[in-house]
Amino acid sequence: MTREPASGRTDKDLRAAIDAAVWAPSVHNTQPWRFSVRGSTISLRADADRRLEVADPDGREMLLSCGAALYTLRLALRAEGYRPETVVLPDPDRPHLVADVHVAEGDAIEDADVRRLYAQIERRRTHRGAFVDEPVGAPVLAGLHYEAEAEGARLVQAIEMHTKGALAALTQAADHVQRRSRQYMSETARWAPAPGSTRAEGVPQESYPQQSPRTEPHFPTRDFARGHGWGVHVEPPEDALLTGAVLLLVTGSDEPRDWVRAGQALQRVLLRATEAGLAAAFHTQALEIPELRDFVRDRFCAGAHPQMILRLGTAAGPGFATVRRAADVTEEG
Ligand SMILES: Cc1cc2nc3c(=O)[nH]c(=O)nc-3n(C[C@H](O)[C@H](O)[C@H](O)COP(=O)(O)O)c2cc1C
Questions:
Q1: What number does the ligand 1 atom closest to the CA of 224 have?
Q2: Which of 25, 62, 129, 281 suits a disulfide with 311, CB 3.0-4.6 Å?
Q3: Which pTM was predicted?
Q4: pLDDT tens column, 42-90
Q5: All domains of the chain in start order, with CATH
Q6: pLDDT by residue (tens digit) across 278-323?
């Protein structure tokens, strides 16, 4: 039997947990989520108006983003002393539902590890640059593998230079194809506001460097500036910089439920990495082109389904800024 939490405390705490959840990463910072609260249940729904129609027609990245928000919500509730009980989609009568989180009173035991991870939620930022010449330690990597598996996904590390090179080349190929596509670029433009914009969504110029530092092998950053010269000025280093650890986040099957799972695993891995002083760069261009995604799957994932390609390391240079809109919350009943 779970005890219902005392409602005086709950309303404020549930709202605080939702406010924490919006700090999850999302593709193009679309923040494609909505929350509603009924009693002590929080429902998380995908906001399909925020799906990227060109880059993400199936809503895979939208659900990954929602999964990241879901993990953050669960973590925040646990940090507040509750016991979240999560039921993940599907519900045929509620098509955009991602999950219902029933909030039960916890055992009030202070969990230092949960608090430490919770403290990373607003510190974590997407990195869009190179890494210093310092390999990610084996114990940290082992810990990250564990975090991904605990959420039902898996990390596959590209260790061989040729594998890293092939993934970088595939990212470059996808990036070239996308830069040539008018539909793709106008969709990116919609989510990359011009300097001075007050929008609290999308990827503003404070979030990326003016010039993407050249790493070896080179993983191109998405073209948010579109030739306008926007971005943070970072002194270019003399030498090529390190790519960092290259990781694929994979799942055994490829249904919407797996995408939510992968999103939860992603955020759990990212928060643990932040705690260890590491930053992550994402390169999902190749996974948005079905033929390239199939190729990555066959060649580098032993048949598992690639959900994210990321680089991990100690950031060279300053971190970048990000923005968030206030949580979209409906109180029901
Ligand atoms: C599914 C997914 C795909 C992403 N793909 C990329 C990408 O290809 N390139 C990139 O620079 N950032 C990518 N991101 C990071 C988002 O742009 C980032 O989370 C968002 O701008 C918010 O910024 P923050 O992570 O610093 O809070 C991705 C994030 C998610 C969840």
A1: 11
A2: 281
A3: 0.96
A4: 999 999 999 999 999 999 999 999 999 999 999 999 999 999 999 998 8
A5: 11-123 (3.40.109.10), 138-313 (3.40.109.10)
A6: 999 999 999 999 999 999 999 999 999 999 999 999 998 778 999 9
One-letter amino acid of 186: S
Q: 48: CA distance to ligand 1 center in Å?
A: 18
Give the contacts of 94 (CB within 8 A, at least 6 positions apart).
Answer: 43, 45
Q: Which residue's CA is the closest to the ligand 1 atom numbered 2?
A: 27
What count of residues does the chain have?
333
CB proximity list for 9: less than 8 A, separation 6 or greater: none
Query: Given ligand 1 and candidates 22, 28, 222, 288, which is best to mutate, with the most ligand atoms within 8 Å of its CB?
Result: 28
Structure tokens, 207: 């979030």
Q: Which two tokens stand for residue 48?
A: 């399909």
Indicate the burial class of 107 (C-beta count within 10 angstroms; 0-12, 13-18, 19 or more). exposed
Which is nearest to 65 in space by CA: 109, 13, 126, 4? 126
